[in-house]
């Protein structure tokens, strides 16, 4: 009888410990020291997979609002680092198969990639873009982004957007990009399954050194690999261009028509050449 009572007590203790373990783990992640410890353990598992993860400091907690300072991730020949990563999300939304990120901000993110891979032969294609969870990103903010791969380099002073990724529609709203010499803003939506319908409007500006600023508006509709484009230039002169693209062909084709009320050259200053009520049609591969 004593042995049976001891076994029952041991079983009760083991059951209580097993039931308490998830609760204790969650409680641990709500604390800053617990979050730091959990990230350190995750970094050790990354080492086993050939991914080196390092960081200087952590503030906040992993179950709601966290800031990681001095983040460095190395995998193969590639390196990603950021002065700071701030994440605020709602883990309770996972119960409804939704990844809800309220804010994701990266300060001075930098990606350095290894040698670029050769582009695959043949026409481009888009795979089915299904996700196991729906994704809601209320705001992504990047400042001082740098991407370098091989001899190429890309930089943005500022970028921001919101996104929704669902089973039937992927959308990006409030897109804002700003870099030296150009800026872009707008909204885009994509159907994640065939025929991958694409729709959206972008407005932007571009200015080369010692040249007048170019302002334009781009509207896109149709299948992603066979889109219809409409471009309206407002500065430094009025011009409209409509085009269709066939990108899935063995030799991609285009067909475009541009019209304008008056074009002059040079663009700034006194015109030497000009064309009134012009129209230009071009097509090819």
Which properties best describe this structure?
single chain, 285 residues, alpha+beta, 16-stranded mixed sheet, 2 helices, elongated, disordered N terminus
Query: What proportion of the residues form beta strands (DSSP E)?
Result: over 45%
> In angstroms, what is the radius of gyration?
27 Å
The low-confidence parts are 1-25
SSE string, helix = H, strand = E?
HHEEEEEEEEEEEEEEEE
Structural class: alpha+beta
Counting H and I runs of at least 4 residues, what is the number of helices? 2
Description of the molecule:
The chain is an alpha+beta fold. The chain is built from 2 helices and 16 strands. The protein has helices spanning 2-29, 32-48, and strands at residues 51-54, 57-60, 65-75, 78-90, 98-107, 110-113, 134-149, 152-165, 170-179, 182-190, 198-206, 214-223, 226-235, 239-246, 253-265, 273-284. It has a 16-stranded mixed sheet that branches. It is elongated, with a radius of gyration of 27 Å.
SSE arrangement:
Elements (H helix, E strand, L loop, with lengths): L1 H28 L2 H17 L2 E4 L2 E4 L4 E11 L2 E13 L7 E10 L2 E4 L20 E16 L2 E14 L4 E10 L2 E9 L7 E9 L7 E10 L2 E10 L3 E8 L6 E13 L7 E12 L1
Parallel strand pairs: 5-7, 6-7
Antiparallel strand pairs: 1-3, 2-3, 3-4, 4-5, 4-6, 7-8, 8-9, 9-10, 10-11, 11-12, 12-13, 13-14, 14-15, 15-16
